[in-house]
Amino acid sequence: MNDVRGAALIPEQEIHMEFVRSQGPGGQNVNKVSTAVHLRFDVENSPSLTEHVKKRLIRIAGHRVDSKGILHIQAFSFRTQHLNREDALNRLNDLVKQASVVPKKRIRTAPTLASKERTLEAKRIASRIKTLRKPVKDHDD
What we know:
The chain is α+β, with helices and mostly antiparallel strands. Helix content is about 35%, strand content about 15%.
């Protein structure tokens, strides 16, 4: 099993990894060795995540989740397959950890009487300043 740092446990069987040629660093080796990792995780059909975590994970992952509910993560920052594999798993773990946190519900509050008074006073001051900007009219009829 792959530890998801306290959020949940995702079994290795649910994570599919494919090693492909990297576009990242590697020099001449980049054309010969498949060091990049393409990780796929089926969020929709995962039995190890709750429905709420699945929904939040799909929302958080955004464009990395396709129409079938499969999360795609590509890792090619490092020169070795092992480090890219660890990077991809860490990124998956971070996403699941974020999705596992239940957001606090916002409690709507009404403005205080003092804040309403401050708003009205600011409006009065602004109005007074604008009236003082108007040209003075002569009353010499």
